[in-house]
Amino acid sequence: LAASLGWIASVHEDIKLFGIFAKEIGVSDDRFSIIEEEYYKLIGSLEYMITLSETLRLNVTPEVAKDGLNAAKRAIFASDRESGIRGVRFNILDLGILRSSLRDIVMAIEKELRGRRSYSLEPAILPYYDALGMFSETLDKFPASSREDIEHAGKCIAFGEGTAAVFHLMRAMEAIVSGIVALGGLSANPDKEWGKLLSDIGRHTESLPQSNPQEKALRNRWSACHKNLYHVKQA
Amino acid sequence: TYTTEEAKQVFDSTRAFVRELATL
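Predict the joint structure of the above. Result:
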């Protein structure tokens, strides 16, 4: 953005030199306002400013840049007979519009960005910002609200809001606990306090058969889940 | 009050827990 603005500012000076100034001292009309290469840079820069300022949802800057772009697009291509250099010529009205557009873009963008605050996230923290990506499909088994809370927990971590992140994680955990209850086909009410839920899960675990290795493995996983939840509850 | 580092630990534990649960 800064580079683009800097370049626009320098072109602004060029136009003044080759355009207005040339006309004022009565240089022949064969001369052009700016060379072709600079013209395309100008068009590209204005288009970039429009895209960028629209992406940033600025209100005034894109309109100012569009005025300039429209004026610039009305330029007439010409080439210098002696040197063969190609360029474009602006009519006096469009040159005025273009010049004020270039001057106003700088002012508009400064004014509009002054009311903004921008944040930058370091690459190491980015996975937390896109927290669901860290969970892949494992969350599909649990209620949608838990996905939402985990997503927000990650965003809170990315922005350094530890307490808010833990708050979201606890809410996600509550939804996940409801999911466990549903998963085990338990009749327990997931709105119960955690202690009661834990008793229900404990009873369910105890009731599971263990007559073959598969059954034993499942029972062990339920037992581990019970233990994990107990630790979370204590925390 | 939790620091970001503590919140990260809770987050990572939750993730490990969920991954384990998904196998139930």
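Residues 17-30 of chain A have pLDDT under 50 and may be disordered.
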